[in-house]
Design goal:
Blueprint: E1 10-15, H1 26-33, E2 37-40, H2 46-49, E3 57-60, H3 72-84, E4 88-93, H4 103-112, E5 117-120, H5 125-132, E6 143-150, E7 168-174, H6 180-189, E8 197-202, E9 210-215, H7 219-225, E10 232-236, H8 244-255
Parallel strand pairs: 1-4, 1-5, 2-3, 2-4, 6-7
Antiparallel strand pairs: 7-10, 8-9, 8-10
Pathway: Porphyrin-containing compound metabolism; siroheme biosynthesis; precorrin-2 from uroporphyrinogen III: step 1/1; Cofactor biosynthesis; adenosylcobalamin biosynthesis; precorrin-2 from uroporphyrinogen III: step 1/1
Organism: Novosphingobium piscinae
Protein name: uroporphyrinogen-III C-methyltransferase
Length: 256
């Protein structure tokens, strides 16, 4: 008798959204309710994991600034290994898999190994946080352009950030809490006015959400004084104004 090769499973890269379980897509919720193997990030809300059926196997690959449960190459190998063993694998990520989620790297690893992979988008952290804080990332009076950057990228001080923030523009910084001082100094060195308004959104869409405001020159002090912890997003620009009157005044000031 000849042995047949085991059936190859599949990897689903699923966005868990910004935190609130109600912000999951219907497709993501359906996949979770039928999941057998779930490889998840540390920022995924526990209530979302509770949607999985009894007996589902959870593998945490939580990452922090100083400690990774698994390195990215090891996560890639884990996904491939589980799928080649015939399992349907849910790779559950906070926000959206393809917005600072390394989903592209994981999809490439799966394709290279002959493993079918599909992507289920989620509400990104930026979109969810801005909506929860009622900060419009674009606005006819203040911003026709929005840029997303990573605040922990390599070579931060050597990059040219001129033009990313300022009149008519909104800048959203992921993973910027630990480097808030360098970010503020970098932006001002590249031409951003020190009084440009900033909002720091901590624990977006969760019951413990906070929205903290101040000028870019005081960003580091704000983060330290308020003891801001991840997950948190930094939004820079006139759109962070508290109301329409303040927003219009900021837009007018920048126009002159």
């Amino acid at each position: 008798m000849s042995e047949t090769a085991p059936r190859v499973g599949k990897v689903w890269l699923v966005g868990a959204g910004p935190g609130d379980p109600d912000l999951l897509t219907l497709r993501a919720a359906r996949l979770l309710m039928n999941a057998r193997v779930i490889v998840h990030d540390g920022l995924v809300e526990p209530a979302i994991l509770e949607l999985a059926p009894k007996g589902a196997r959870f593998v945490s690959v939580a990452k922090s600034r100083s400690r990774h449960t698994l390195q990215q190459d090891e996560i890639n190998a884990l996904l491939v290994r589980e799928a080649l063993a015939g399992h349907e694998v849910i790779r559950l990520k906070g926000g959206d898999p393809f917005v600072f989620g390394r989903g592209g790297e994981e999809a490439e690893a799966c394709r290279a190994a002959g493993v079918p992979v599909d992507v289920v988008p989620g509400i990104s952290a930026a979109m969810g946080a801005a909506a929860a804080a009622q900060i419009p990332l674009t606005h006819r009076e203040a911003a026709s352009m929005v840029t997303f950057v990573a605040g922990q990228c390599k070579g931060l001080t050597e990059q040219d950030w001129s033009g990313l923030a300022g009149a008519g523009r909104t800048l959203v910084i992921y993973m910027g809490v630990a480097t808030a001082e360098q970010i503020a100094e970098k932006l001002m060195a590249d031409g951003l006015a020190p009084e440009t308004p900033v909002a720091v959104i901590e624990n977006a869409t969760r019951p413990t959400m906070r929205v903290l405001r101040g000028p870019v020159a005081g960003l580091a002090d704000l983060v330290e004084r308020q003891r801001v912890k991840s997950p948190a997003l930094i939004v820079i620009g006139a759109v962070t104004a508290r109301d329409e009157t303040e927003l219009r005044a900021l837009a007018l000031a920048h126009a002159h």
